Amino acid sequence: MSELAGMISAMMYADGEDAATSSENLNWENPDARKIEALDEQIRQHPGHRLQLRLSELNRVMEAWVGFSMSLSSLLKKCEGDDEFISELMRNVGDRSRQDWIIRSLDQTIIAYVAALGALIDHTRSLMKLQPKILSDEYDTRTAELMKRHPAAPFLGRLRNYILHRVAAPWEFDGNFVGGNMTARVLLSSEALLEDRKGWTGDAKAFILASGEQVHLSPLLQPYLEAMVEHIVQVFPAVARANAVSIEDCDRLVKERNLLLSGGVTDGSDWEQRVAHMQENSQRRQRGEPQTDFRTGLPINRESEGE
User: Are residue 72 and residue 204 in the same domain, yes or no?
Assistant: First the structure.
C-alpha cells in the first residue's frame, strides 16, 4: 500500500498539487489511514479479489509452459537439423562429453515442459471445479474435443507421470546421411514407455502403440501448444463473466481506497494516463521546458506556487 500511496502522491505533486516541505512530507500520515487499512483487509478477503489473483496466477503458469514448449521445440529442431548436433548425437566412440551435454539439455527441457504442462492442467481444472456447473461442463466438453482432435494430447499430458515419478526420458536418436545432408530424429522408446503399465490412460497407451517402436516428439509440440493455448485462453473471459458481480464489487472497494490514498484526486481509473503524463513531464524537465498540469494541460508556474 505504501508504494501505491507514494506513486499516487508523486502524481499529485507532478500534476500541480501543493506539496509540503520535504521534512513535513516525511512525517505526513494520511488522515484516512485507518479507513485505508480496513479497505485493504476487505479487498484481500474479497472473493472477487481472490478470483482475479487466481486468474492472474493461471495466466503466469500458462505463459511459463508456453515458454518451456518453445524452448523444447527449439532444442529438438537444433538436434534434428544442425550438423554438429547430429554428429554428436550419433557418436558411439571417442569423447562423448558433448553428447552428454546435449542429452542433459534435453532432460532439463523436457522435465520443465511436462512439469509446467501438469501445473497448467491441474490449475485450470481446480479453478473450473469452483465455477457454475454450466461453465465447468463446457470446459470438460472442450477438453474432450481437444483430446479427439489431437491424439497426442493424452500422451503428452501423462508423460509427466512417467518422467517425474518413474525414470528419465527414454531418448533414442535416429540419424541419416542422404545426398550430402544430415538429418536426425529425437525419439522416445515406446517399449520403455510401456513398461509403466499403470501410468498411461487407455488413450495415451493407444497413441504410443500406434506410433510404432518410437514416438517422434517434435511434430507433436506445436499443434498441441496452439490447441492448448486456444483452450485455456477461453477460460479467462468465461470465468470473469460468470463472476462479474463479485469482481465489480471488489473494483468498487479498490476505487474507494484509491480515492482515500490520493486525497480525492483519482480512483485509479486514469492510472495509465497519469503515469504517461508523469513521464512526459519528466522529459519536459530534462529539456528545460515547463511541466504541465494533468487536469488542465496548462504549464505549471512553480514560482507562483512557492509564494
Answer: yes
CB 205 within 8 A of CB 100: no
Q: Phi and psi (nearest 5°) for 265? A: -75, -45
Euclidean distance between CA atoms 215 and 210, whole angstroms: 9
User: Residue 204: CB partners within 8 Å, gap ≥ 6?
Assistant: 154, 155, 157, 158
Q: Are residues 206 and 254 in the same domain?
A: no
Domain match, 197 and 138 both: yes
Between CA 142 and CA 36 the distance in angstroms is: 43
Give how many domains the chain has, as a whole number: 2
Distance CA 250, CA 41 (A): 12
In the numeric block, the cell 479498490 is attached to 254
pTM for the predicted model, two decimal places: 0.77
Q: Are 87 and 173 in contact (CB under 8 A)?
A: no
- Residue 76's domain comprises 48-233
- Residues 297, 162 share a domain: no
160-181 residue pLDDT tens: 999 999 889 999 999 887 767 8
CA nearest 58: which of 231, 224, 221, 222? 231
My answer on whether 64 and 130 are in the same domain is: yes
